[in-house]
Amino acid sequence: QSAGNVVYLVANRSSSSLNLYAVSDPLGTRTLATQIIPVTDVGGGPTSKAPQFGSAFPMDMLTGKMQGNATLAQGDLWCCMTRGQPAGPAVAAYWRLQLNAWPFSGNNPTLGEEGTLGALTDWNYLPSIGANLAGDVAVTWTRSSSTRAAAMMVAWRTASVSTFGAPIVVQTSQAPDLDLDSTRAFSRWGDFFSVWPDPNDGSLWAVSEWTRADTGTWSTWWAQISMPPRDFFVRWNPPDPRTQDGSLAFPYKTVETAHANITSGTIHIFGGNYNERLTLNKAVTLEAYSGGTVTIGAP
To answer: What is the model's pLDDT at position 67?
Structure first.
């Protein structure tokens, strides 16, 4: 059992708290740890459904359920869901939970960040969030109102900044969604939203829904969000042996570990005899500094 052998789950508990679970050794002798994380109360969610332009049938928002895919990156768990006041409009809320190596460290997880996305004059709902290994994050969600057709929205940020950029419209529905049946008087929406990192270059892929004019029902739209390349530094005897990160002051100690974590950019390898075996499967440059030997493949 180790800090890497754990499954984390997060669930909605109330309008002012989340439930965080850690299942250690999930395929062996399982143990469960639970924490309640207090968050700012921005409402439990509207009691009605979201309006859409051009139709009297509103959009289902799956209010009250944790939505999209929670993502673990650099020790932080990102999650999101639809919230808002009972009368609306809905808000796309997100949280960044800092695990602090819980449940192995003796430290409890803490709320590192929280917020909402989208203009408060619109209904913003069904968010999904994702992050890459470097800590870049993107969110997609739907925006609509009585005067706006349902649109796929995206906002993102790199690991070096602390706020999301201005939301952009990726794709606007060409018609109101009328994917109805005799059992409900609203449009089912949001089941397949996702944001996920590309393991080859660190870009983030966002998947959402929109409505086509030719069918009047939903279809899938996706967008790729490019992230900047990064430089990692490898030194076999770094200044501080307790750390292993990608900075120049505290580099990785092995090429293999750096390669496992980098998504795009350059791995600068300082002098030393590494004799490591790598599978080169990314858009990454290896640059060996003078004064050492680097063997790729069998020594």
So the answer is: 80
pTM of the predicted model, to two decimals?
A: 0.85
What is the layout of strands, in order, in the sheet containing 110-117? 66-73, 76-84, 90-98, 110-117
Give the type of residue at 66: M
Query: Each residue of 37-67: pLDDT tens digit?
Result: 999 999 999 999 999 999 999 999 988 888 8
Q: Within 13 Å of residue 22, how many CA atoms lie on the same side as its CB?
A: 23
Q: Which residues 6+ apart lie within 8 Å of 32 measured at CB?
A: 21, 22, 23, 24
